[in-house]
Amino acid sequence: MKNIEIYRHKKILVLGLAKSGVAAASLLHELGAFVTVNDKKPFEENPAAQGLLEKGIKVICGSHPPELLDDGFELIVKNPGIPYGNPLVRKAVDHHIPIITEVELAYQVSEADIIGITGTNGKTTTTTLIFEMLEAADKNPLIAGNIGTVASEVAREASSDNTIVMELSSFQLMGVRTFKPRIAIITNIYEAHLDYHGTMDEYSQAKVNITLNQSEGDHLIVNGDQEHLLELVKDSKAQKIFFSTKQPLAEGISIQNRKIVWFDEEIISLDEIILPGKHNLENILSAIAAVKLMGVENEAIVRVLGSFKGVEHRTQLVTEMNGRTFYNDSKATNILATKSALEAFQSPVILLAGGLDRGNDFDELVPYLKGVKALVVFGQSADKLAKAGKEAGIRSIHHVDNVEEAVPVSYSLSEPGDIILLSPACASWDQYKTFEVRGHIFTEAVHKLKESL
Protein backbone atom coordinates (compact mmCIF):
# COMPACT_ATOMS: atom_id res chain seq x y z
CA MET A 1 0.00 0.00 0.00
CA LYS A 2 1.19 3.49 -0.80
CA ASN A 3 1.66 5.42 2.42
CA ILE A 4 0.05 8.63 1.21
CA GLU A 5 0.07 11.79 3.34
CA ILE A 6 -2.81 13.75 1.79
CA TYR A 7 -5.31 12.79 4.49
CA ARG A 8 -3.09 13.22 7.55
CA HIS A 9 -4.73 15.51 10.14
CA LYS A 10 -7.73 16.19 7.85
CA LYS A 11 -11.24 16.17 9.31
CA ILE A 12 -13.15 13.60 7.26
CA LEU A 13 -16.73 12.39 7.52
CA VAL A 14 -17.50 8.83 6.42
CA LEU A 15 -21.20 8.87 5.61
CA GLY A 16 -22.89 5.48 5.76
CA LEU A 17 -21.25 2.25 6.80
CA ALA A 18 -21.86 -1.19 5.29
CA LYS A 19 -18.64 -2.88 4.16
CA SER A 20 -17.27 0.02 2.12
CA GLY A 21 -17.83 2.56 4.90
CA VAL A 22 -16.08 0.41 7.49
CA ALA A 23 -13.15 -0.13 5.12
CA ALA A 24 -12.91 3.59 4.28
CA ALA A 25 -13.05 4.68 7.92
CA SER A 26 -10.40 2.17 8.98
CA LEU A 27 -8.08 3.11 6.12
CA LEU A 28 -8.40 6.86 6.69
CA HIS A 29 -7.78 6.38 10.42
CA GLU A 30 -4.63 4.44 9.56
CA LEU A 31 -3.56 7.25 7.20
CA GLY A 32 -3.74 9.78 10.05
CA ALA A 33 -7.08 11.45 9.36
CA PHE A 34 -9.46 12.67 12.07
CA VAL A 35 -12.41 10.44 11.12
CA THR A 36 -16.05 10.74 12.11
CA VAL A 37 -18.49 8.04 11.02
CA ASN A 38 -22.19 8.77 10.60
CA ASP A 39 -24.61 5.89 10.05
CA LYS A 40 -28.41 5.80 10.07
CA LYS A 41 -28.62 2.53 12.00
CA PRO A 42 -28.83 2.98 15.81
CA PHE A 43 -25.57 2.39 17.64
CA GLU A 44 -26.90 -0.45 19.81
CA GLU A 45 -27.92 -2.36 16.65
CA ASN A 46 -24.74 -1.48 14.78
CA PRO A 47 -21.79 -3.87 15.36
CA ALA A 48 -19.78 -2.15 12.61
CA ALA A 49 -20.05 1.23 14.35
CA GLN A 50 -19.22 -0.35 17.69
CA GLY A 51 -16.06 -1.89 16.22
CA LEU A 52 -14.94 1.46 14.81
CA LEU A 53 -15.52 3.18 18.15
CA GLU A 54 -13.20 0.63 19.77
CA LYS A 55 -10.50 1.75 17.31
CA GLY A 56 -10.86 5.32 18.54
CA ILE A 57 -12.97 6.58 15.64
CA LYS A 58 -15.77 9.01 16.48
CA VAL A 59 -19.19 7.50 15.72
CA ILE A 60 -22.58 9.22 15.37
CA CYS A 61 -25.55 6.92 14.70
CA GLY A 62 -29.32 7.01 14.32
CA SER A 63 -29.78 9.62 11.57
CA HIS A 64 -27.92 11.84 9.10
CA PRO A 65 -28.35 15.31 10.68
CA PRO A 66 -27.35 18.15 8.30
CA GLU A 67 -26.03 20.19 11.27
CA LEU A 68 -23.27 17.60 11.58
CA LEU A 69 -21.46 19.51 8.81
CA ASP A 70 -21.04 22.49 11.14
CA ASP A 71 -18.01 20.61 12.56
CA GLY A 72 -15.89 21.81 9.65
CA PHE A 73 -15.26 18.64 7.66
CA GLU A 74 -12.84 18.97 4.74
CA LEU A 75 -13.99 15.85 2.90
CA ILE A 76 -16.88 13.38 2.85
CA VAL A 77 -16.51 9.73 1.86
CA LYS A 78 -20.07 8.76 0.98
CA ASN A 79 -21.57 5.29 0.82
CA PRO A 80 -22.63 4.89 -2.84
CA GLY A 81 -26.16 3.91 -1.85
CA ILE A 82 -26.91 7.26 -0.17
CA PRO A 83 -28.47 9.52 -2.84
CA TYR A 84 -27.33 13.05 -3.51
CA GLY A 85 -30.84 14.20 -2.58
CA ASN A 86 -30.14 13.35 1.07
CA PRO A 87 -30.37 16.63 3.07
CA LEU A 88 -26.90 16.24 4.59
CA VAL A 89 -25.39 15.52 1.16
CA ARG A 90 -27.24 18.47 -0.38
CA LYS A 91 -25.87 20.75 2.34
CA ALA A 92 -22.35 19.44 1.69
CA VAL A 93 -22.71 20.21 -2.03
CA ASP A 94 -24.02 23.70 -1.23
CA HIS A 95 -21.01 24.29 1.04
CA HIS A 96 -18.58 22.97 -1.60
CA ILE A 97 -17.32 20.14 0.61
CA PRO A 98 -15.73 17.52 -1.68
CA ILE A 99 -17.60 14.18 -1.79
CA ILE A 100 -15.87 10.99 -2.88
CA THR A 101 -16.59 7.28 -2.71
CA GLU A 102 -14.39 4.53 -1.32
CA VAL A 103 -13.06 3.47 -4.76
CA GLU A 104 -11.23 6.80 -4.96
CA LEU A 105 -9.33 5.87 -1.79
CA ALA A 106 -8.57 2.45 -3.28
CA TYR A 107 -6.96 4.02 -6.33
CA GLN A 108 -4.91 6.45 -4.26
CA VAL A 109 -3.32 3.76 -2.08
CA SER A 110 -3.02 0.99 -4.67
CA GLU A 111 0.42 -0.15 -5.84
CA ALA A 112 -1.28 -2.40 -8.42
CA ASP A 113 -2.62 -1.46 -11.83
CA ILE A 114 -6.42 -1.36 -12.04
CA ILE A 115 -8.73 -2.68 -14.74
CA GLY A 116 -12.09 -0.94 -14.17
CA ILE A 117 -15.33 -2.29 -15.59
CA THR A 118 -18.65 -0.46 -15.74
CA GLY A 119 -21.82 -0.48 -17.84
CA THR A 120 -25.54 -1.06 -17.40
CA ASN A 121 -25.38 -4.80 -17.99
CA GLY A 122 -22.58 -7.34 -18.16
CA LYS A 123 -20.26 -5.85 -15.53
CA THR A 124 -20.12 -8.86 -13.26
CA THR A 125 -19.66 -11.42 -16.02
CA THR A 126 -16.97 -9.32 -17.72
CA THR A 127 -15.15 -8.70 -14.44
CA THR A 128 -15.20 -12.40 -13.59
CA LEU A 129 -14.03 -13.45 -17.05
CA ILE A 130 -11.07 -11.05 -16.91
CA PHE A 131 -10.12 -12.31 -13.47
CA GLU A 132 -10.34 -15.96 -14.58
CA MET A 133 -8.28 -15.33 -17.74
CA LEU A 134 -5.57 -13.43 -15.86
CA GLU A 135 -5.47 -16.15 -13.23
CA ALA A 136 -5.19 -18.86 -15.91
CA ALA A 137 -2.20 -16.95 -17.27
CA ASP A 138 -0.56 -16.63 -13.81
CA LYS A 139 -0.88 -12.83 -13.81
CA ASN A 140 -1.73 -12.53 -10.08
CA PRO A 141 -5.13 -10.83 -10.39
CA LEU A 142 -7.28 -9.64 -7.48
CA ILE A 143 -11.02 -9.02 -7.79
CA ALA A 144 -12.72 -6.06 -6.09
CA GLY A 145 -15.31 -3.33 -6.10
CA ASN A 146 -18.97 -4.04 -6.73
CA ILE A 147 -18.06 -7.74 -6.83
CA GLY A 148 -15.87 -9.56 -4.34
CA THR A 149 -14.04 -7.69 -1.58
CA VAL A 150 -14.33 -3.95 -0.93
CA ALA A 151 -11.92 -2.12 -3.25
CA SER A 152 -9.88 -0.29 -0.60
CA GLU A 153 -9.38 -3.52 1.38
CA VAL A 154 -7.99 -5.20 -1.73
CA ALA A 155 -5.87 -2.18 -2.66
CA ARG A 156 -4.20 -1.93 0.75
CA GLU A 157 -2.97 -5.54 0.39
CA ALA A 158 -2.04 -5.41 -3.32
CA SER A 159 1.53 -5.14 -4.59
CA SER A 160 2.90 -3.98 -7.92
CA ASP A 161 2.90 -7.64 -9.04
CA ASN A 162 -0.90 -7.73 -8.87
CA THR A 163 -3.63 -6.40 -11.12
CA ILE A 164 -6.92 -5.39 -9.50
CA VAL A 165 -9.99 -6.20 -11.58
CA MET A 166 -12.66 -3.84 -10.28
CA GLU A 167 -16.38 -3.77 -11.04
CA LEU A 168 -17.72 -0.22 -10.70
CA SER A 169 -21.27 1.10 -10.47
CA SER A 170 -22.50 4.53 -11.54
CA PHE A 171 -23.08 5.27 -7.83
CA GLN A 172 -19.40 4.67 -7.10
CA LEU A 173 -18.14 6.54 -10.16
CA MET A 174 -20.05 9.70 -9.28
CA GLY A 175 -17.57 10.09 -6.42
CA VAL A 176 -14.22 9.91 -8.19
CA ARG A 177 -11.76 12.77 -8.65
CA THR A 178 -8.36 11.28 -9.53
CA PHE A 179 -9.36 7.63 -10.16
CA LYS A 180 -7.43 6.43 -13.22
CA PRO A 181 -7.54 2.78 -14.32
CA ARG A 182 -4.87 1.49 -16.65
CA ILE A 183 -7.66 -0.20 -18.64
CA ALA A 184 -11.29 0.93 -18.51
CA ILE A 185 -14.27 -0.92 -19.98
CA ILE A 186 -17.77 0.40 -20.65
CA THR A 187 -19.85 -2.63 -21.65
CA ASN A 188 -22.96 -0.68 -22.65
CA ILE A 189 -25.22 2.12 -21.47
CA TYR A 190 -29.00 1.81 -21.32
CA GLU A 191 -31.58 3.69 -19.28
CA ALA A 192 -31.32 2.60 -15.63
CA HIS A 193 -31.22 3.90 -12.04
CA LEU A 194 -33.09 7.08 -12.90
CA ASP A 195 -34.67 6.97 -9.44
CA TYR A 196 -31.15 7.68 -8.12
CA HIS A 197 -29.64 9.83 -10.87
CA GLY A 198 -32.73 11.75 -11.97
CA THR A 199 -31.75 12.00 -15.63
CA MET A 200 -30.20 9.78 -18.26
CA ASP A 201 -27.53 12.44 -18.82
CA GLU A 202 -26.37 12.27 -15.20
CA TYR A 203 -26.39 8.46 -15.25
CA SER A 204 -24.40 8.33 -18.49
CA GLN A 205 -21.87 10.88 -17.28
CA ALA A 206 -21.34 8.90 -14.08
CA LYS A 207 -20.44 5.87 -16.19
CA VAL A 208 -18.10 7.90 -18.40
CA ASN A 209 -16.25 9.09 -15.28
CA ILE A 210 -14.35 5.82 -15.50
CA THR A 211 -12.24 7.37 -18.28
CA LEU A 212 -12.26 10.95 -16.94
CA ASN A 213 -8.61 10.95 -15.85
CA GLN A 214 -7.16 8.46 -18.31
CA SER A 215 -4.23 9.60 -20.43
CA GLU A 216 -2.66 8.55 -23.72
CA GLY A 217 -0.88 5.64 -22.06
CA ASP A 218 -4.16 4.10 -20.88
CA HIS A 219 -6.79 2.12 -22.77
CA LEU A 220 -10.57 2.45 -22.98
CA ILE A 221 -12.48 -0.59 -24.27
CA VAL A 222 -15.93 0.45 -25.43
CA ASN A 223 -18.98 -0.99 -27.18
CA GLY A 224 -18.64 0.04 -30.81
CA ASP A 225 -22.27 -0.90 -31.55
CA GLN A 226 -23.70 1.92 -29.43
CA GLU A 227 -23.49 5.25 -31.26
CA HIS A 228 -24.63 7.25 -28.22
CA LEU A 229 -21.83 5.69 -26.18
CA LEU A 230 -19.24 6.51 -28.82
CA GLU A 231 -20.37 10.13 -28.64
CA LEU A 232 -20.08 10.11 -24.86
CA VAL A 233 -16.44 8.94 -24.88
CA LYS A 234 -15.21 10.95 -27.84
CA ASP A 235 -13.19 13.31 -25.61
CA SER A 236 -11.42 10.56 -23.68
CA LYS A 237 -7.64 10.86 -23.98
CA ALA A 238 -7.17 7.08 -23.66
CA GLN A 239 -6.39 4.82 -26.59
CA LYS A 240 -9.80 3.46 -27.62
CA ILE A 241 -10.38 -0.21 -28.42
CA PHE A 242 -13.79 -1.02 -29.86
CA PHE A 243 -15.69 -4.30 -29.74
CA SER A 244 -18.62 -5.31 -31.91
CA THR A 245 -20.93 -8.30 -32.23
CA LYS A 246 -22.60 -6.79 -35.30
CA GLN A 247 -19.80 -5.89 -37.70
CA PRO A 248 -16.24 -7.01 -38.40
CA LEU A 249 -13.55 -4.61 -37.19
CA ALA A 250 -10.13 -4.33 -38.79
CA GLU A 251 -8.91 -2.73 -35.56
CA GLY A 252 -10.38 -3.92 -32.30
CA ILE A 253 -12.21 -7.15 -31.52
CA SER A 254 -15.22 -8.60 -33.31
CA ILE A 255 -16.84 -11.75 -34.70
CA GLN A 256 -15.86 -12.89 -38.18
CA ASN A 257 -16.94 -16.19 -39.74
CA ARG A 258 -18.08 -17.43 -36.32
CA LYS A 259 -14.69 -16.74 -34.80
CA ILE A 260 -13.56 -14.05 -32.37
CA VAL A 261 -10.87 -11.98 -34.04
CA TRP A 262 -8.55 -9.56 -32.24
CA PHE A 263 -7.30 -7.16 -34.94
CA ASP A 264 -6.19 -9.82 -37.49
CA GLU A 265 -5.61 -12.64 -34.97
CA GLU A 266 -8.14 -15.45 -34.57
CA ILE A 267 -8.66 -16.22 -30.88
CA ILE A 268 -11.44 -18.83 -30.58
CA SER A 269 -14.38 -20.31 -32.48
CA LEU A 270 -17.84 -19.53 -31.12
CA ASP A 271 -18.49 -23.27 -31.08
CA GLU A 272 -15.87 -23.67 -28.33
CA ILE A 273 -17.62 -21.22 -25.97
CA ILE A 274 -20.12 -22.76 -23.54
CA LEU A 275 -21.50 -19.55 -21.99
CA PRO A 276 -24.91 -18.98 -23.65
CA GLY A 277 -26.37 -15.77 -25.00
CA LYS A 278 -25.70 -13.02 -27.51
CA HIS A 279 -25.36 -10.54 -24.65
CA ASN A 280 -22.54 -12.64 -23.23
CA LEU A 281 -20.62 -12.32 -26.49
CA GLU A 282 -20.26 -8.61 -25.73
CA ASN A 283 -18.89 -9.48 -22.30
CA ILE A 284 -16.51 -12.04 -23.78
CA LEU A 285 -15.19 -9.64 -26.43
CA SER A 286 -14.47 -6.87 -23.92
CA ALA A 287 -12.84 -9.31 -21.52
CA ILE A 288 -10.57 -10.73 -24.23
CA ALA A 289 -9.59 -7.22 -25.30
CA ALA A 290 -8.55 -6.37 -21.73
CA VAL A 291 -6.43 -9.49 -21.19
CA LYS A 292 -4.80 -9.24 -24.62
CA LEU A 293 -3.66 -5.75 -23.61
CA MET A 294 -2.22 -7.41 -20.48
CA GLY A 295 -0.22 -9.90 -22.55
CA VAL A 296 -2.34 -13.02 -21.94
CA GLU A 297 -1.75 -15.84 -24.41
CA ASN A 298 -4.63 -17.33 -26.40
CA GLU A 299 -4.26 -20.72 -24.71
CA ALA A 300 -5.37 -19.30 -21.35
CA ILE A 301 -8.30 -17.46 -22.96
CA VAL A 302 -9.50 -20.58 -24.78
CA ARG A 303 -9.17 -22.69 -21.63
CA VAL A 304 -11.37 -20.32 -19.61
CA LEU A 305 -14.03 -19.91 -22.30
CA GLY A 306 -14.20 -23.67 -22.75
CA SER A 307 -15.20 -24.16 -19.13
CA PHE A 308 -16.80 -20.92 -17.91
CA LYS A 309 -20.53 -21.54 -17.24
CA GLY A 310 -21.39 -18.09 -16.00
CA VAL A 311 -21.47 -16.02 -12.84
CA GLU A 312 -23.70 -17.09 -9.98
CA HIS A 313 -27.21 -15.65 -10.40
CA ARG A 314 -26.46 -14.43 -13.97
CA THR A 315 -27.83 -16.93 -16.50
CA GLN A 316 -26.15 -19.52 -14.31
CA LEU A 317 -26.61 -23.17 -15.25
CA VAL A 318 -28.02 -24.88 -12.14
CA THR A 319 -28.66 -28.44 -13.29
CA GLU A 320 -30.31 -30.68 -15.85
CA MET A 321 -33.23 -32.79 -14.71
CA ASN A 322 -35.02 -35.36 -16.87
CA GLY A 323 -34.22 -33.40 -20.02
CA ARG A 324 -35.12 -30.00 -18.54
CA THR A 325 -32.35 -27.45 -17.95
CA PHE A 326 -32.63 -24.96 -15.07
CA TYR A 327 -30.98 -21.52 -15.18
CA ASN A 328 -30.67 -19.01 -12.33
CA ASP A 329 -30.78 -15.43 -13.62
CA SER A 330 -31.85 -13.80 -10.36
CA LYS A 331 -29.51 -10.86 -11.07
CA ALA A 332 -31.92 -9.83 -13.85
CA THR A 333 -33.46 -7.04 -11.79
CA ASN A 334 -34.67 -5.04 -14.80
CA ILE A 335 -36.51 -5.66 -18.06
CA LEU A 336 -33.40 -5.25 -20.21
CA ALA A 337 -31.58 -8.05 -18.40
CA THR A 338 -34.54 -10.41 -18.83
CA LYS A 339 -34.74 -9.53 -22.54
CA SER A 340 -31.09 -10.54 -22.90
CA ALA A 341 -31.65 -13.79 -21.04
CA LEU A 342 -34.63 -14.74 -23.20
CA GLU A 343 -32.65 -13.99 -26.36
CA ALA A 344 -29.98 -16.45 -25.20
CA PHE A 345 -32.14 -19.54 -25.67
CA GLN A 346 -33.57 -21.22 -28.75
CA SER A 347 -35.39 -23.99 -26.85
CA PRO A 348 -38.89 -23.49 -25.37
CA VAL A 349 -38.68 -21.45 -22.15
CA ILE A 350 -40.74 -21.59 -19.00
CA LEU A 351 -40.11 -18.21 -17.40
CA LEU A 352 -40.25 -17.49 -13.67
CA ALA A 353 -40.58 -13.74 -13.12
CA GLY A 354 -41.76 -11.13 -10.63
CA GLY A 355 -40.70 -9.04 -7.69
CA LEU A 356 -40.74 -5.44 -6.53
CA ASP A 357 -43.28 -3.21 -8.27
CA ARG A 358 -41.46 -0.01 -9.21
CA GLY A 359 -44.50 1.45 -10.96
CA ASN A 360 -43.48 0.43 -14.49
CA ASP A 361 -45.36 -1.78 -16.92
CA PHE A 362 -43.76 -4.58 -18.91
CA ASP A 363 -44.96 -3.64 -22.40
CA GLU A 364 -41.43 -3.58 -23.82
CA LEU A 365 -40.92 -7.16 -22.65
CA VAL A 366 -43.92 -8.44 -24.68
CA PRO A 367 -42.06 -9.08 -27.98
CA TYR A 368 -39.46 -11.15 -26.11
CA LEU A 369 -42.15 -13.31 -24.49
CA LYS A 370 -43.33 -14.70 -27.83
CA GLY A 371 -41.14 -17.79 -27.44
CA VAL A 372 -42.12 -18.38 -23.82
CA LYS A 373 -44.10 -21.60 -23.40
CA ALA A 374 -45.38 -20.88 -19.88
CA LEU A 375 -45.08 -18.02 -17.41
CA VAL A 376 -44.96 -18.41 -13.62
CA VAL A 377 -45.30 -15.09 -11.79
CA PHE A 378 -44.88 -14.01 -8.16
CA GLY A 379 -44.34 -10.93 -6.01
CA GLN A 380 -45.79 -7.42 -6.22
CA SER A 381 -45.46 -7.24 -10.01
CA ALA A 382 -47.15 -10.60 -10.70
CA ASP A 383 -50.35 -9.14 -12.17
CA LYS A 384 -48.46 -6.75 -14.46
CA LEU A 385 -46.25 -9.56 -15.76
CA ALA A 386 -49.28 -11.80 -16.27
CA LYS A 387 -50.88 -9.00 -18.31
CA ALA A 388 -47.74 -8.75 -20.48
CA GLY A 389 -47.78 -12.53 -20.90
CA LYS A 390 -51.38 -12.47 -22.12
CA GLU A 391 -50.53 -9.73 -24.61
CA ALA A 392 -47.67 -11.93 -25.88
CA GLY A 393 -50.10 -14.80 -26.43
CA ILE A 394 -48.89 -17.06 -23.61
CA ARG A 395 -51.74 -19.40 -22.75
CA SER A 396 -50.20 -21.00 -19.67
CA ILE A 397 -49.79 -18.34 -16.95
CA HIS A 398 -49.65 -19.31 -13.30
CA HIS A 399 -49.54 -17.25 -10.09
CA VAL A 400 -47.54 -18.52 -7.10
CA ASP A 401 -46.57 -17.01 -3.77
CA ASN A 402 -42.81 -17.11 -4.12
CA VAL A 403 -39.77 -18.47 -5.95
CA GLU A 404 -39.66 -21.69 -3.94
CA GLU A 405 -43.24 -22.51 -4.93
CA ALA A 406 -42.51 -21.58 -8.56
CA VAL A 407 -39.97 -24.38 -9.03
CA PRO A 408 -42.24 -27.46 -8.80
CA VAL A 409 -45.01 -25.63 -10.66
CA SER A 410 -42.65 -24.80 -13.54
CA TYR A 411 -41.43 -28.39 -13.67
CA SER A 412 -45.00 -29.68 -13.86
CA LEU A 413 -45.56 -27.47 -16.92
CA SER A 414 -42.39 -28.62 -18.68
CA GLU A 415 -41.35 -31.33 -21.11
CA PRO A 416 -37.93 -32.76 -22.01
CA GLY A 417 -35.95 -30.17 -23.99
CA ASP A 418 -37.43 -27.17 -22.16
CA ILE A 419 -35.49 -24.41 -20.41
CA ILE A 420 -36.76 -23.41 -16.95
CA LEU A 421 -35.44 -19.89 -16.38
CA LEU A 422 -35.61 -17.68 -13.31
CA SER A 423 -35.21 -14.19 -14.76
CA PRO A 424 -37.40 -11.92 -12.64
CA ALA A 425 -37.15 -8.57 -14.51
CA CYS A 426 -37.63 -7.00 -11.06
CA ALA A 427 -35.71 -6.23 -7.91
CA SER A 428 -36.11 -8.71 -5.06
CA TRP A 429 -36.85 -6.39 -2.15
CA ASP A 430 -40.58 -7.07 -1.88
CA GLN A 431 -39.85 -10.63 -0.67
CA TYR A 432 -36.07 -11.13 -0.40
CA LYS A 433 -33.27 -9.05 1.05
CA THR A 434 -31.13 -9.35 -2.10
CA PHE A 435 -31.22 -10.94 -5.54
CA GLU A 436 -28.55 -13.34 -4.24
CA VAL A 437 -30.91 -14.62 -1.54
CA ARG A 438 -33.63 -15.05 -4.18
CA GLY A 439 -31.22 -16.95 -6.42
CA HIS A 440 -30.03 -19.22 -3.61
CA ILE A 441 -33.63 -20.09 -2.68
CA PHE A 442 -34.35 -20.94 -6.32
CA THR A 443 -31.24 -23.11 -6.59
CA GLU A 444 -32.01 -24.91 -3.34
CA ALA A 445 -35.59 -25.56 -4.48
CA VAL A 446 -34.33 -27.00 -7.77
CA HIS A 447 -31.95 -29.40 -6.00
CA LYS A 448 -34.67 -30.36 -3.51
CA LEU A 449 -37.00 -31.18 -6.41
CA LYS A 450 -34.29 -33.24 -8.11
CA GLU A 451 -33.77 -35.30 -4.98
CA SER A 452 -37.50 -36.01 -4.70
CA LEU A 453 -37.96 -37.30 -8.26
TrEMBL record:
It is found in: Cytoplasm. Residues 117-291 form the Mur ligase central domain. GO terms for molecular function: UDP-N-acetylmuramoylalanine-D-glutamate ligase activity. ATP binds at residues 119-125. Pathway: Cell wall biogenesis; peptidoglycan biosynthesis. NCBIfam families: murD (TIGR01087). HAMAP family: MurD (MF_00639). Belongs to the MurCDEF family. This is UDP-N-acetylmuramoylalanine--D-glutamate ligase. It comes from Siminovitchia thermophila. The gene is murD.
